[in-house]
Every structure is written in structure tokens, then in C-alpha cells.
Specification:
The chain is an alpha/beta fold and about 300 residues long. The chain has 14 helices and nine strands. Strands 3, 4, 5, 6, 7, 8 and 9 form a seven-stranded mixed beta sheet that branches. Strands 1-2 form a two-stranded parallel sheet. Helix 10 links the parallel strand 7 and strand 8.
Amino acid sequence: MDLQMPALNGIEAIISIRTEFPNARIIVLTTYTADVQLLRVLKAGARAYLLKGEGARDLLDTIRAVRAGQKRIPPEVAAQLADHVAEDDLTSRELDVLRLIATGNANKEIACQLSIAEETVKSHVTNILAERIKIEAISLDSTSVKVHPDETGALKKNGPQAIGNSRGGWNTKVHMVAADARTALVFALSAGHDHDAPHGLALLEELGPMPEGLPLLMDRAYEGNETRQLVLDLGMIPVVPPKSNRLHSWGYDHALYKKRNEIERLFRRLKGFRRIFSRFEKLDVLFLAFLCFVLIVEALRLSVNTP
């Protein structure tokens, strides 16, 4: 299996094949030596990772090893992988980032306080998630919030107002990436009549890289080629059903996809609060403030109820 193909990329093809034929033994033949690609490939279910520069003898040995139930990784790639997974503890800089996150600072504010680039902050956050917060999968979805009639006709105010008129009336959409039924990683608002896909794409770009090989469960509204490619570029594996009108379909892990109910349960918890169930604020900044407050309440409730 090659990683670069015209219709599907290699990782998506491996997932599709393994979904239909769980016992399939796949060898990846590629020019990529980075441990990032290796982690994605192994997570997708490949049995061996072989570089195209290897000789015929190595290829035959790899085929025989995989047929015998073994895994094969080139030594130079294995060395990179060992360096990658050997970082067990958080560094002092990662602890600094974690403390600033805990006090409510955004990535840009953290970067200014520590005199580092914002991308470096995102990288530290990724490492923290990988080392200390064991996440099996994350989910991307959206929910609609009805806007109270008093807020649809108020005088115009300064600031973003993500309110739109759809078939269900005036409403706002909350787009969210969640780690489980109580933990939101990032979220944003859009007008109710806007399509989900562009806002989901922007939300993933804001999220940044995540632990390598982490499955991202997405609603079918986000199954576009551009979104799935971005998910792969961020180091994650897209788990999303294709639309029925797709010329080139793909397989996905149906059992894992059932975990998407966690973000639906999170939305249900949030809408248990009146200021979230119905939007009373004209300005996005005020509604987002209430959303943040409710997420904090849910997190504290979990910590109190956990022995």
C-alpha cells in the first residue's frame, strides 16, 4: 500500500480495507521516514512499514514476516519512534503552559507571557494531552440553540453576532470538538443558516495538532475532502461515514463511531442550563462567556463526584 494515491490516501484505504476484511495484513511501501507517518499507519492497522529504497531481499523478508504474523519497521524509523515515545514526563516548559491554561489564558496570551511562538504553545498542549490525558477519541459536531425573540429585534450592537434565520427560526449553532461527555477542547459559534463544513474546518485549524493516530469522530456534515485531509495533516485519523452520493466511498470503524454519542450527551448537559438552551444575548462574547461558565460547572461537578 502506498500512502499517496489519487482518490483515497493510503491511511484511509487501510482503514477501509481493515473494516471490511479485519484479518487483512497490509504492508506500507513509502518514502516517508518520519515517526509521525509510522504512528498513523500502525494505528490504522498496517502490519509493516517499508521504505521504497530497500532492496528486493528486504521486501521478501518483510512479506514472509507479515505472513507469519510479525510486524516489521525499518531500524532508522524505529529509532525515531523510540525517541518519540520515550518522553514520559512533562518538561518544565510544559508545566508552565499547563499552569497558564489553568488560570484561563488563551494560546496567544500564553505565547506572549512565555516569549514563545503560538505554534510552540499548541505543540506543548499536544504533548500534555498525549502524556497526561489519555484520550481514546475526540468528536466534532454541532448543535442548534434557539434565540429568544427579544434578541432578534434588539437595536444593533457592536461586535460579532452569530444569529441566523433557518427553517427552525432564529438560532445559533455551537460547533465543538470534545474529548468525552464532559470535556470540550475547543468551540465556536456560527449563524443558524450556515453550513457546518466551513466552520468545522476553521475549528480544526484552531485546535491544531493532536496526539498521533488519535481518531476524530465526525458527523457526516464534515465528511468533505478538505476536512478529512486536514484531519490527517493534524496527525489524526478521520472516522466519518461517507454521504450516499459519494462516487468513491470508504469504510470506517462502526463500533468506534458509536462513541460519538459522548458529544451528544455533552450538548444535552449544556442545554440543561437555561442560558444555553435558549440564547438571550445579542453579542457572541456574552453567550460564549455563559458557555465557558457552564463547562466549568460541569467539570467541577465531575471532580466533586469522582472519588
